[in-house]
Amino acid sequence: MEGNNTNSGIVIDEESLLLFRQQVNDDEKYYALYSQDSYLSSTAATDTVSASSIDEEEKYDTVVDNHNDGCLKRLWEAYYGALLTYPLLVKSLTAFVLLGFADVIAQCFERIRDSHNNSSAEEAFNLYRVARFGFFGLAGAPWTHYYYGWLDTVLPPTQNPWTWTTAIKVVIDQFLQAPALLAVMIMGMALMEGRGISGVTVDMENQYVEALIKNWELWIPATVVNIAFVKPDLRVLYDNLVFFFWTIFLSMLLNQAPDAP
Q1: Going by C-beta distance under 8 Å and a sequence separation of 6 or more, which residues neighbour residue 82?
Q2: Which residues contact 213 (CB under 8 A, 6 or more apart)?
Q3: Which of 50, 120, 123, 129 has its CA at a distance of 20 to 30 angstroms from the CA of residue 147?
Q4: pTM of this structure
């Protein structure tokens, strides 16, 4: 059958019209499929780029972590090498820095405590006090160095940490050496503050027993670990690290106000 177009005079048969419509439908389907494929390809490319970016970030983080670990390792190796080469100097300087910094922390805690107690008189930061504790670390490290050497000579270390040798060393350290060292420290601090014999007497009467009891609470277990498990050339370093925390308490005790509870 045929259909006439009266406006243009063009005659289009029905079969051609059906073929034209079929071609249009095919083109629309192709365009839709093409658009979908393009979208999927674009999404896949985006996902690939995102995954690649994540991988690069993870690789960067890994490199940074390894770099930091490498820096810490090199610092430790340099410190340990200096410790073996110049043991007295390195131990003394380490104690000087740690004990001085411990007093800095103690003074910060005191300021916080005073602010909570509504104290109106805030004292200036006492650098002389920091220097006194640092000096005690500088002067005390050689004693600790030779003391541990003597102790290991008299009672050689054992492979098994849980022996009578370890127990005897702990008893000597905490019931002979520690009380004497604490007394020297309290008296020395009073003298360096310029308070003379009367200041020494007051501090020993008011603070020695309390400080000694607190000393045993911290140092008996710490000394067991030190003698039983720490390498001999690292014992003074271990002592200095524990002494850092001990000095924070001791500094606050020795420098508390006379009417403090």
Answers
A1: 90
A2: none
A3: 129
A4: 0.71
